[in-house]
Design a protein that fits this description.
The chain has 2 domains: 151 residues, Adenine-n6-DNA-methyltransferase TaqI, Chain A, domain 2, CATH 3.90.220; 142 residues, Adenine-n6-DNA-methyltransferase TaqI, Chain A, domain 2, CATH 3.90.220. Helix content is 33%, strand content 23%.
Length: 407
Amino acid sequence: MNWVEYNLNELGSFKNGLNFKKEKMGSGYPLINVKDITSNIRLNSKLLDLVDVSIKGKSASYLAERGDIFFVRSSVKREGVGMVGMLDDDEKTVHCGFVIRFRPNQKIIHPKFLLYLLSSPYWRESVRNLSGGTAIINISQGALKTLNVRFPESLQTQKYIADISSAYDDLIEKNLKRIKLLEQAAQNIYKEWFVNMRFPGYENTVINAATGIPEDWEVGVISDFGKVVTGKTPSTKRSDFYGGNIPFIKTPDMHGLPYVVETGNNLTELGEKTQLNKNLPANSVLVSCIGTAGVVAMTSKISQTNQQINSVVFDSTFKSYYFYCFAKKLKPLLEGLGSNGTTMVNVNKRKFENIDLNIPAESLLVNYSKIVEPMFKQILTLSIQNQKLEIARDILLPRLMNRTIEV
């Protein structure tokens, strides 16, 4: 098998993304953003936020094509820079200014093969070594153009390797669809019971005229429903605090899935013990309240978070699923509470724990939990399964690339 080596600049063309105002979000073209490029390297336009921008004349060059590869250009954490994803459909899609598009020359290299090559741990680290910055870590087109790529000359061989890796992603994609359906089912029941008030036995329920809710419900605030914990970051000057097995969750770790099963940073037991009062048990609900507010997830095991996240710890597990569904609707409220005329949203613990919350009768919460708990357990199982599939894919790929396994 003949192998060749090319500079990345020789294999295609680069394009920086669009800059736009936040007020443009909500309608228009699907937008590829930093948060969309994760360990799940396939990008589905139907899962993207929308942005209202004019694509005319030269601006049409911003429209993506199937097979385009997208690099994270800027991130608040080094691990995020250089992450890659590929558009996997033909929808007219654009990308933001924090993302760089690369359009491969498909006469030389198979796009999916290049995607898997660039997503491997070795290449991600190579890209990160070219990045710079302090508060925001960046990588430029110029830096990416210096990378050399070695690969089989035969497009057929490239496709074969890509197809092997793609089989893992097919399973991951199926699991993600199941996760989405399961979460939606739980949300639908929540809406029917607790928003539309059509819970079992609602026909015989007496409504309190003053509160507008059933008489055996209470009007409370978040702190009445569970203990609120605001995260904190152990000293980053102590390397012995980091690199262990205790998840240290930041907002980017919460995007995409109901449960956090993988984090960019982990604490050691020593790091954890510096702030044991910040420990969160499994099924605690996390809500980002600084910067990007309103991102919601749950812990899969004992974890800690940074100070941008307020979490709710429950004395009974049956409360967690109700609160998770409630919190998923909080984003507009949090953005309003935390604006204060500044550019960054900031909802402190006091404001968060005093957000109004209807507290249904305990028997109803228990019944809801019994119905949706199997759904959430399946979501967690599928999420862990996907994590293992990604690890297996990332182990296999370098072996195919370096010919440890012949193809």
